[in-house]
Protein 1
Amino acid sequence: MTGIDTNVLVRYVTRDHPEQYRAAKRHLESSCTQEDPGYVSAGVLCELA
């Protein structure tokens, strides 16, 4: 299971910086699968709120 960092999620959701969005998207697509899902901790969710 891969832990997903706040910065990765922020860049992916906001798409405010095209290069960082593409990097976040590549990271999520390459490291999170049905067989090996990503994990978002409660702390990361709080930081996103």
Protein 2
Amino acid sequence: MSASKRHTPAIVAIGVVLLIGAGMLIGQNADGSAGNCTEGDCSSGQGTFAWDNDARYTGSFKNGQPDGRGTYTSPGGVILEGSFQQGRPQGYAVLRMPDGSVYAGDFSAGQIQGDGKYTYGNGPVYTGRFQNGRPTGRGTINFGNGVIYAGNFVAGTPGGAGELNLPGDGVCRGQFQQGRLNGQGACQFPDAFRVEGRFRNGLANGPITIEYESGARYSGAARDGLPAGSGKLTFPDGLAYEGQFIAGLFQGQGELRWPNGDIYKGDFYQGRMQG
């Protein structure tokens, strides 16, 4: 006999690679490339400045630097349109990447910083706080496949308190670390399967309680998502096992009680009585 049905909460790891805006001083680009004003007033007015490496800025200038509204296009095809101050993105701007990814939100001193929305070219959408170019603080990421995480982020990945919604109306709530449930948490699935307790790397590890869709209930230790160690499993018909588990199976010393009062106490191996 066993308690081996495994429901593994989805593991969410989010690495957001964002462009960090560099100062774009007129006469020299961030990589040292020189250039020239090709149109208008690139000192204190409206103009276009082109660098020798094919980078280009069109917009407002002040004291020879991009300042005010403008558009910067990098040699690799990255386009940044918005507000600049002393040669750097500052305030609200929209960043478009060659792979179709788009960031719309706050910049500070050339970095993505504050509130914003990052739409990945392959579908996921993150909305929330950014720090040093990465999701940090409160935010939500929607993967577009039914997986949605809402909660705290640390350096680009879920970290701290959060809620993970899974396809088919499953949901996990608790503490996350590096994109996975770590610490106290609980997961509920629409087929009435529920697990609550300690998690490590997204799997139940430590003291847990599992409620199965059949009505059976396990309370005890777990390892890698399965009952392991000392625990108790009870069934709706009154059958109950208390003792040692390995990988979800009765194994070691244990006691099995039937609804009619019969008792077996002794050794078990891979879910079977030995004796």
